[in-house]
Write a structure and sequence with these properties.
four-stranded antiparallel sheet; elongated
Amino acid sequence: LISSPQFESVSEFQFGLAQARVHGLWGYIDQSGRFAIPPRFSEASSSSSNKGTALVEQEGKWGSIDRTGQFTSQPTFSSIGGDFSEGMIPVELGGEWGYVNAEGHVVIRPQYEAAGPFSEGKAPVQTNGKWGFIDKEGKTVIEPEYSAPGLFHNKLAIVNDGTSVITTSGK
């Protein structure tokens, strides 16, 4: 046992650090059980990018930190959508959704009503109440015409609440 029960919650280690919560705040512990990044965040993601950065919430806004706890992107996003997928994660800013990379830099500007994770190079986005798909440059590759999106697996996605299947070309 590395440490006695002193945390409210602890995640799995990634890149040598694990999320740990004490007194309602999240920080990151090293493999000796000591805080490498002191608990000061109301929410925190695991270091799931290949660069070891993590998304954290402070004072109601999300930003990203590096492995030393320094902000690589100041907390400005209202919400995040899940976790990193294919090097990006959906974020909300000003009521619209876009994508940031592992360093927390906006790579697809917020412009969608909703957004999902990338799979096989495409991500579902909602415009005017309908879902379509974009590529990693933000270009629409499948026009928004679906009531519910799915994620691509083996070049197929289930859409419209499970009633239809499309290919990566949208057919």
